[in-house]
Amino acid sequence: xxxxxxxxxxxxxxxxxxxxxxxxxxxxxxxxxxxxxxxxxxxxxxxxxxxxxxxxxxxxxxxxxxxxxxxxxxxxxxxxxxxxxxxxxxxxxxxxxxxxxxxxxxxxxxxxxxxxxxxxxxxxxxxxxxxxxxxxxxxxxxxxx
Length: 145
What we know:
By secondary structure, the chain is an alpha/beta fold. Helix content is about 15%, strand content about 40%. Strand 9 (about 105-110) and strand 10 form a beta hairpin.
């Protein structure tokens, strides 16, 4: 799916104000248009599809298709950005390698005191949280969730 840049593509990016610590670690898809990539500093391994990247520093990222990233004044580091995303006018977005985004954290729901705790999950929405909270005594149901 991803491939290395050609020498011609590296030159095109350089002419558009882009730089990299190691061009061999920059990967694109066959449908990537480099004409929408300007003034970007690449650090580490960066993979991207057909995206509009302007005035940003990208480090250890994977970026999908139909993405616009503009005016990142510091760095976008260690993220996977899906398709159809816009990130504009921010300073820093950075995640450590051990970041869980609260997955697995147990929180009390509907009651600030103990008794109705649920575990935060990747696909957790408000309906599922309600069911897990209100039917917590039904172990057969909870085990299937």
